[in-house]
Write a structure and sequence with these properties.
- This protein is 85% helix and 0% strand.
- By secondary structure, it is an all-alpha fold.
- It has one domain.
- Helix 1 packs antiparallel against helix 2 and helix 2 runs parallel beside helix 5.
Length: 122
């Protein structure tokens, strides 16, 4: 049952990741990887919310949303690849900003989601 929920969450997260990436990149004429930044930020926020909800959520919800959906939506490998690609293109500012802003914003989004859900539920 748990594997099926992870699979189902992944079936929702993966296409959403692709569609979000394409939509964001088409709106921004920039070297900065806005699509990957957006999905990683959204995934961190969602994961923060379900973590902050704590015991109010069941194990199957964590499997569906946390592991399946957020796991397929977010991407550390693409973030790393795009950062290295920016360095190869000698776009050092964009590479540094991608790493710095992505890490800080992702931690902030997770903290925001966690504290908001904890305050509302706790």
């Amino acid at each position: 049952m748990t594997a099926a929920l992870v699979f189902l969450g992944g079936m929702l997260g993966a296409p959403l990741r692709y569609l979000t990436d394409r939509a964001m990149q088409s709106r921004h004429d920039s070297l900065f990887p806005w699509g990957t930044f957006t999905v990683n930020l959204a995934g961190c926020l969602v994961l923060g919310v379900i973590s902050g909800a704590g015991i109010a959520l069941s194990g199957p919800v964590y499997a569906l949303v946390g592991t399946g959906f957020c796991g397929a939506l977010t991407t550390y490998s693409t973030f790393s690849y795009e950062s290295l690609r920016l360095v190869e293109q000698k776009a050092y500012f964009y590479a540094a900003m991608n790493v710095t802003v992505s890490v800080v914003a992702a931690l902030g989004a997770a903290l925001l989601g966690y504290t908001t859900a904890s305050a509302l539920i706790g």
